[in-house]
Hints:
The chain has 20 helices and 26 strands.
Amino acid sequence: MTGAECVQLLLIEDDELHIELIQRAFEPWQSLFDLTVAHTLREARALLDDDAFRFDLLICDWRLPDGDGLELLDPSDPLPLLVMTGYGNERVAVEAIRAGALDYIVKSEAAFIDLPRVAQRALRQWRAIQAQYRTEQALREIEARYRLITENTSDLIAILDEQHRFRYVSPSAVNLLGRTPEELIGHDAFDDLHPDDMPNSTAYWQEIAQHKRTTATFRYRHAGGSWRWFECDIKAVDQDGAPAAIVIARDITARRELEERLLQMQKMDALGRLSGGVAHDFNNLLAVIAGCTELARQSLPDDHPAMLELIEIQHATERASALTRQLLAFAHRQKFDPRPIDLNALIQDMHNLLRRLIREDITLHTRLAPDLWHVRADPGQIEQVLVNLAVNARDAMAAGGALTIATTNVVADEAFERRYPSLKAGEYVCLTVSDTGIGMDEETRQRAFEPFFTTKKPGEGTGLGLATCYGIVTRHGGAIDLASEPGCGTVVTIYLPRASVEEAQACATAAQSAGLDGSETIMLVEDDPAVRSLVARTLRAHGYTVLEASSDQEAIAHAAQDATIHLLLSDHVIPHTSGVALADRLTFLQPRMRVLFMTGYVVEPQQNAHRATDAPVIEKPFTPTELLRRVRALLDA
């Protein structure tokens, strides 16, 4: 053992003879001990306070010139101390042991000779005490750390016994469940599980009983009665010799709501694409039916026996056309003409219409905020939203009630953005339509915006009312929400972005009145043979020269041969390309050619495209008269 490893001893003794005897006793042990002497308490304290010295053991006389050696025993700062007493002072020595001394010796020559061995024994004892102290201190620190974690974590931490009763619950239960740990301890954790989650929870518990670690997601009842979603990590453990389970549960209610909203948005987008495609094809059929019916009526006298049937066909076509318009609005493919509008004025203008839609036993209230901001919206589509909501409210109030339409300004804050993640921060106008009807359960409420979903009897509804509202509102960059409970009525809340203050309101231009006949050459491009035949016959019957094409290649071939083409009348969707792309190519060959598109849905203008994207559009289904008016007006412009 090197000198650096020697045990540093501090001997505190004022009797020089005793000091000499003790030094002699340690001489054979010089390789193990390094002895320093102090004659008074003052000298000893000076050495102890000096950072240059580090003592492993103190050997101190009881009586010293400047005090009692036991004064070195400070409970708050214990020292490894051996006490020496004179004969007959054993009582003092015992008190010293109680005060914290490691050991004591009664002064004698034999005791001095044995002092090195006593010092070794005391040092081992001190090291054992220190090791135990460090262990206890580490345990206290660990306990304090875990207490700090469990008392301040936002997650719920719980210990369940083998009967799944709460044995420990972290304080976070107050925020997460609205209950204190004392209220929960001793209760069965399964008592407040959602009934639909109980079978899964039983399976989870069986896995835990087999000492498996598992994760679980379930709903748990809050003290206020609502259901909260929790994601849990559960581990089987042994506590005091008995099986138990540690549960760490995280509240994911907000995340679940966001996920459900995202899934709903994705589902609605997919259904919108499907609906748009169906409506496009259906409008082609309706265009043929409506056109042929009008031509048949024009060719027959008013008293012809078939006239009544033709009129009924026209009415049915109009109803079918209205249905496809709703599909297109839901699919975001209806003609969209947004401009700054005063929502209050629109609601007031619609008051009489809405009053006629609902029955006399339903009261209509309006609560319109003064100084309401303008919104940038298509007034026709917003009117459709109000009509659909009013009809739904009427049907929900079979025994009468009240329909209330209200408006207010809203500035999006953090809570608003969390609830409506699809909306950007900014200013919105809030429109609410509420009724006092029968309401709906949660399952119905979640499916309310699905197209073709309806709780009405067959023949009483198409299931497109709320779906259309959803499509219109989201297309305007807004959001729509529905709150309802059975017997408590329904509240539909709509947020529409505020219009720019500088944005000027578009002015409607009056259509020019003109005759229907003409002599110009028209290039007709339509891949549907029935529609192409109907349009061609209509135009030729009124003097126009019609060049028919079912594809872009046929159209280009005609354009290369003919001297002048005055108008391109093309479907927006043609095989292998689009009407816009075809128009761009043909205008290079025929620079003065006008363009009119036909479509079953409106394709949004593309940025940085050619002028063909700005061409007017006539929506299918259209009547021959409507087509002739649009063609004549465009050629005369």
